[in-house]
Amino acid sequence: xxxxxxxxxxxxxxxxxxxxxxxxxxxxxxxxxxxxxxxxxxxxxxxxxxxxxxxxxxxxxxxxxxxxxxxxxxxxxxxxxxxxxxxxxxxxxxxxxxxxxxxxxxxxxxxxxxxxxxxxxxxxxxxxxxxxxxxxxxxxxxxxxxxxxxxxxxxxxxxxxxxxxxxxxxxxxxxxxxxxxxxxxxxxxxxxxxxxxxxxxxxxxxxxxxxxxxxxxxxxxxxxxxxxxxxxxxxxxxxxxxxxxxxxxxxxxxxxxxxxxxxxx
Amino acid sequence: xxxxxxxxxxxxxxxxxxxxxxxxxxxxxxxxxxxxxxxxxxxxxxxxxxxxxxxxxxxxxxxxxxxxxxxxxxxxxxxxxxxxxxxxxxxxxxxxxxxxxxxxxxxxxxxxxxxxxxx
Amino acid sequence: xxxxxxxxxxxxxxxxxxxxxxxxxxxxxxxxxxxxxxxxxxxxxxxxxxxxxxxxxxxxxxxxxxxxxxxxxxxxxxxxxxxxxxxxxxxxxxxxxxxxxxxxxxxxxxxxxxxxxxxxxxxxxxxxxxxxxxxxxxxxxxxxxxxxxxxxxxxxxxxxxxxxxxxxxxxxxxxxxxxxxxxxxxxxxxxxxxxxxxxxxxxxxxxxxxxxxxxxxxxxxxxxxxxxxxxx
Lengths: 265, 119, 232
Known about the structure:
The complex is a heterotrimer.
Chain A: H1 2-36, H2 46-79, H3 83-86, H4 93-123, H5 126-146, H6 149-169, H7 171-184, H8 188-216, H9 218-223, H10 227-260
Chain B: H1 11-24, H2 37-44, H3 48-61, E1 64-67, E2 71-74, H4 78-103, H5 107-118
Chain C: E1 5-14, E2 17-27, E3 32-36, H1 43-50, E4 58-63, H2 70-75, E5 76-79, H3 91-101, H4 107-116, H5 130-142, E6 148-152, H6 160-173, E7 179-184, H7 187-190, E8 196-201, E9 204-210, H8 211-218, H9 222-229
């Protein structure tokens, strides 16, 4: 059932994302060509301005769209009239939420890839590419001075892990807000906004409380040899644990509300 | 004959009446096969269970019979249908006579009235 | 044979206000049942609980002996009183969708019904009138070979000719193992196709009886009785 839900979810969202991707990827060579022509005489000067503006806008839209569309899609399918269809399918609420998370991750990652590819197409020249590689290797040798290669590897793994967890769980804040929103108010959009602020408020407080142990262990932190060690052994693991815990809490909260407190019009 | 169902009597009783009329009038020919319950129910826009109940009653009275393999048939007993026809006619006549009496006709007047009307 | 649907002391309160109070009800298989009651009598609340869209405050409701959950959603086919299908989808995409999620969906039957009502499977829902959308929804719901069909106001928005077709669809798709529960206030239109009726008033069942019993005892139609019982 998870597979079928994902398939349907992809179909339902692809009709927004694919055209956006296509527009950006088509605008890229057009923009590059337009700009490379150089000087436009007099009144035609507006052409490169408009083209560049459109290109930048398309990139911005893609970055914003993934979040907006993911939130909108969840709202529409779970708490509006379409909810009657989704919630009466022989599928558990957990499966619904998982399917939504998987498909949103897919779109976040592919939006990122499209932007990277587009920027690459826009700015690539052999010289620039060589100097970019050069910069990277300088950066690597600089950091090697501060940390062992084991620490670096650990850090990189941690960052990647954190990104994956972040991408996968970040929509949950919005999902939980929408779930709370449909309980507290007849106006579900307004309710969701209030729900969002409630979650933010609670998580700020919990976040502060969770920092308390660090206060007691400042001495221990000071004895660690390098800053790199603090980052890879304490800071990132802490972030990973916190994002997993908050993800689980938000998931359970959303799941519980949809199971027990669903309130379709 | 279209199916006409009124609001004041149980539906299955009305179905029994209407099917009986169809049989005695020859619309459902003697010894012929009756449509299926579902088809009859759809045609009359009634619940199949109600139609089933009416048909069972008609079977009990002998007007219909079921052949285990090939379905439900109208009786082949023409005497029975004839009797049924007379019974129905008498029933109608009784209603008619009662009405006329209510209006104030006596038996002699009724006779005269009918003779005139039929001619 | 166990009952298809059972309610024991089923109660649902919204912030203290009881929408259903202590309902006891049994539905057997092979019946077409009318769920009748004025607005606010608790019909929709009951239907939502049957479909697992609401959780009872007290008491319980069982379908085939179990509380509403994934298992019961497989055997309950629900027509909400809403246009709940994705507008951007084509009819044949919706059929694929139903086939994907419901093992008991009979696609062939759905295509036959679409053809009879002259609905083009390649049309998008968006381009259709409200009445046509309702027909598509009913076709999808009736094309499932379910144990319990729950139809909330199935004939509300359609013209009389389509109403007849819909009633015929219900009659001809019905079988002795399944039960159809129809909620409506247009009683006169559907009275002849019902086996029994349930009157709901202020969240309580005030009457459950067969249509013919009502006519026999009261000498009047269910519609007339309803008007009398719920006179304003």
